[in-house]
Amino acid sequence: MPATTTSPADLYRHSLRLLLAKDIPGWVDLWADDGALEFPFAPPGRPGRLKGREAIAAYMRDYPDHIDLHDFPEVRIHETTDPAAIVVEMRGVGRLVATGSPFDMTYIAVVTVQDGRFTSYRDYWNPLAVQTPGTDFTGSDAR
């Protein structure tokens, strides 16, 4: 369980370690009960917003079965004028499980933390870059 004194940057770095370890339950546990995960660039038919830890858990449950993350070789965390908010620029690399194709994606995330838990996470990435016919790359069956 995250400590309430955990900085947003430290919590975020810890979340990346959990994703690399494929510890999705541990990653989900970093969320506030009513946290919101948003995908502003979600294509039609894909969720644009998930509200609550349970919805986030359902969305992420099978993530390692779709994207096998190997590393986050570039992570830049920018503090903001709001001590609870950070902006993250990063790159994730790995492979798409269904095809074995390389996965190499850049992201920008706007993240807010309260009491040591994620409360808001806006994930700006291009989901179409990893979409293959018949493959649910999101780790979710929510459509």
Reconstruct the topology from this structure.
Elements (H helix, E strand, L loop, with lengths): L7 H13 L3 H5 L2 E8 L10 E3 L1 H8 L6 E13 L5 E12 L5 E13 L2 E8 L19
Parallel strand pairs: 1-6
Antiparallel strand pairs: 1-2, 3-4, 4-5, 5-6
The figure for the number of domains is 1
What is the name of the CATH architecture? Roll
Helix content: 10-25%
Average per-residue pLDDT, rounded, comes to: 88
- For this structure, the quaternary state is single chain
Structural class call reads alpha+beta
CATH class: Alpha Beta
Unreliable residue runs: 133-143
| Major β-sheet profile | 6 strands, mixed
Q: Taking Cα atoms only, what radius of gyration do you get, to the nearest Å?
A: 14 Å
Please list the strands of the largest sheet in the order they lie side by side.
2-1-6-5-4-3
Number of helices in the DSSP assignment: 3
Strand content: 35-45%
How far do the termini sit from each other?
Answer: 31 Å
- The CATH topology is given as Nuclear Transport Factor 2, Chain: A
Number of strands: 6
Sketch the topology as an H/E string, one letter per element.
HHEEHEEEE
Assign an overall shape. Answer: globular
Question: How would you characterize this protein structure?
Answer:
The protein is α+β, with helices and mostly antiparallel strands and 143 residues long. The chain has one domain: Roll (Nuclear Transport Factor 2, Chain: A). It is built from three helices and six strands; from the N terminus they run ααββαββββ. It has a six-stranded mixed β-sheet with strand order 2-1-6-5-4-3. A hairpin with a 2-residue loop joins strand 5 and strand 6. The protein is globular, with a radius of gyration of 14 Å. The N and C termini lie far apart (31 Å).
